[in-house]
Amino acid sequence: MASGADERVHFRTCHLCEAMCGVEIRVRGEDILSVRGDHADPFSRGHICPKAVALKDVHEDPDRLRQPLRRTADGWEQVSWDEALDEAARRLVDIQAAHGRSAVATYFGNPMVHSYTALLSGTLLLRALRSHNRYSATSVDQLPHHFAAYHMYGHQLLIPVPDLDRLQFLLVIGANPAASNGSLMTAPDVARRLKAIRQRGGRLVVVDPRRSETARLADTHLFIRPGTDALLLLALLHTIFAEGLERPGKLETLANGWDAIRQVAKGYSPEQVEHACGIGASEIRRLARDFAASDGAACYGRMGASVQRFGALCQWLIQLLNIVTGNLDRPGGTLFTRPAFDLIALATSLGQRGHFDRRRTRVRGLPEFGGEFPVAALAEEILTPGQGQIRALMTAAGNPVLSTPNGLQLERALERLDFMVAVDFYINETTRHAHLILPPTFALERDHYDTVFHALAIRNTARYCPPLFPPAADARHDWEIFGGLRERLEKLDPARAGSAYVRWFTRWMNPRRILARGIRFGPYGTGWNPFGPGLTLGRLSKELHGVDLGALRPSLPDRLATQDGAIELAPKPLRDDLERLAGWHASFAAGADGQLWLIGRRDLRSNNSWMHNSHRLVKGPRRCDLLMHPQDAARRAIADGAMARVTSRTGTVELPVRLTEDIMPGVVSIPHGWGHLRPGIRLSVASRHPGVSVNDLTDDQALDELCGNAALNGVPVVVAPVERVGGQALA
Ligand SMILES: Nc1nc2c(c(=O)[nH]1)N[C@H]1C(S)=C(S)[C@@H](COP(=O)(O)OP(=O)(O)OC[C@H]3O[C@@H](n4cnc5c(=O)[nH]c(N)nc54)[C@H](O)[C@@H]3O)O[C@H]1N2
Ligand SMILES: Nc1nc2c(c(=O)[nH]1)N[C@H]1C(S)=C(S)[C@@H](COP(=O)(O)OP(=O)(O)OC[C@H]3O[C@@H](n4cnc5c(=O)[nH]c(N)nc54)[C@H](O)[C@@H]3O)O[C@H]1N2
Ligand code: SF4
Ligand SMILES: [Mo]
């Protein structure tokens, strides 16, 4: 930290999204004077987005909770930490004793992966809880990526990332990094990096039902009908094999299953899929040829390709496309990372490569993946009586009422719980149902290292930052809350503490020590010789702007974690799932009965559900509206700016319409994370800009049935004008 007068400058990583931008925060005493980009950060080089300044807003937010709260008949009352933690632990243990371990469920939300201390200690708490009913935001997000990685490369975290700064051809399927700042592809200032592809003579092609902010940067944008990406990918593979364009190079001998995937691709000519996808056969052929001919190409797909009915197939086929064209594990293609704290090595050493279908949910029989059940099943597991019913829930850093499908049903379920505890610093749509809220510190009061996003970054870098402010008196960090709960659970029921090794590990290994060890014994660490060259956490802390560890490098076959050390091109569960795709394809009818396909979107100034309480981020034009093509609107007599009623199997919302030719006819879009009009929430700014929750429309029964991920994109809806009488909407 540098200091002048009584002003000081603090450098850290913004933890809000996956981009890991370096920020420079100027403070005087307790006041944050400014938040700017850190120009000396070797990775982000001064870039930030508008959300970085909201770090100040959340830190100073008067609505942010600082003390534990207990819900009573007439509102919330403050309780001490000891009282709150004792009560939470006792209730959880009692409920488990009466109804079995799995009567207590957990839901971990997205910010968990943005805090290494929360993540590591949260994992230990889960172990002590010993419930099979574990849920998280993974199953409304990147589960298909883990599924494909586990089956093909032998480890759920072995997810290759595009070599963005060196590739010549980037095919983006259902991702909008220009708004999201990149996901499973940490690349600060991603828009500039995308523009640079074309500047160096390369190509950027975007396949998306909406002409997104990223599509505007592309040389080619192709509209695709939601949920048909797997068909497109199969037709691309078909063309490559049919025209002899495959060039796997060294991958040929590193992978098993070539005949099987050739066979699979045979059945999907561009002509067979063009009607469903809405992309002409000649266009598909041209795309396949250009991709295959390019000197360094990567196909990359995110939410649009993952959080839909055939997400796992999409992620598998994307890997195949990169492999058959020889682009996996080569500079300018896609590569595995080698981060300073190697999460994959740690997980592997603990025997945690992932697993699938070891058990199933009680009500619908949905498979677990990596020890978690699909969150789309959470509400029914609470609502359906019987042996094994969920009676208590702990949420941490999550807002599933706004983030998971059929939020209305989940709310009904939360009201039925015997006990709910939320580790969160807001009273929001989810936590308002809790009996106890345990509010942790915010990011500026804790240290930070990205154990997860360094492992998904387009360059190997490392950056550690100390806290900017000491935690307020009597404040607790997430990891202290989890640790406090775990210790109490173990005291009440010593059998939970596990083996002697586990007991030693949990007692001695606080998150910071785990991080320090991981770095020291990681790929760039000093190892056993603390005086030798290399990284330690101590040395890294002195590098205020972080260190650059170089471009990604090829790492196969060493990095593979499969039993036989080879890539599995045609894992059985994925091959078998093609039958489901074929069935759906056969019955496909575009826009039957005036039905439209609903998809999501993200906005640069928004971050899932929890940053709408920053005045700076919500002012200006309204963000929660329905994008609709003028053709579809005309057919329904809906004018630009008018209110529309959108109805799905699960619910109805009313919101203003924005007409645009940037969306494919037959498709409409609503962003998620809005809907702050629920009673009882304490978000004074957000409640004045409420919007509606798209997840009142998404369906808990619509899944990628293979892996259990929710299908939040491609929801069938009906849209009608809201009739008005004398300016009043008719309910
Ligand atoms: N500003 C901002 N940044 C964020 C977040 C945020 O809320 N706001 N959230 C963060 C999180 S948690 C994540 S996971 C990432 C997500 O990062 P991205 O995946 O890049 O973000 P999305 O905007 O959801 O992009 C999905 C795109 O898929 C398209 N799409 C929808 N359905 C289909 C389909 O069936 N096929 C195809 N081909 N495309 C489809 C949509 O039109 C959209 O453009 O963003 C992260 N960054
Ligand atoms: N329809 C639709 N739904 C979606 C998506 C979509 O594209 N479309 N995207 C999905 C995706 S990718 C994701 S990741 C999920 C996100 O789903 P969730 O993780 O369930 O929701 P968030 O909005 O991220 O809520 C984060 C919560 O954590 C709290 N919080 C913030 N920081 C901290 C912290 O440091 N500690 C603790 N304890 N709490 C904290 C916030 O107050 C908030 O309550 O939403 C999913 N839902
Ligand atoms: S893109 Fe914005 S929110 Fe994401 S890390 Fe950078 S500054 Fe933070
Ligand atoms: Mo996400």
In a few lines, what is going on in this structure?
The chain is an alpha/beta fold and 731 residues long.
What report would you give on this structure?
The protein contains 24 helices and 35 strands. It is of the alpha/beta class. 30% of the residues lie in helices and 19% in strands. The mean pLDDT is 96. Strands 6-5-20-19-18-7-8 form a 7-stranded mixed β-sheet, with helices on one face. Strands 27-29-28-33-26-30 form a 6-stranded mixed β-sheet. It is globular and about 70 Å long. A hairpin with a 2-residue loop joins strand 1 (2-4) and strand 2. Among the domains are: 159-335, Dimethylsulfoxide Reductase, domain 2 (3-Layer(aba) Sandwich), CATH 3.40.228; 589-730, Beta Barrel (Barwin-like endoglucanases), CATH 2.40.40.20. Bound molecules: ligand MGD (2 copies), iron/sulfur cluster and molybdenum atom. The site of iron/sulfur cluster has 12 residues, from loops. Molybdenum atom is lined by residues 110, 141.
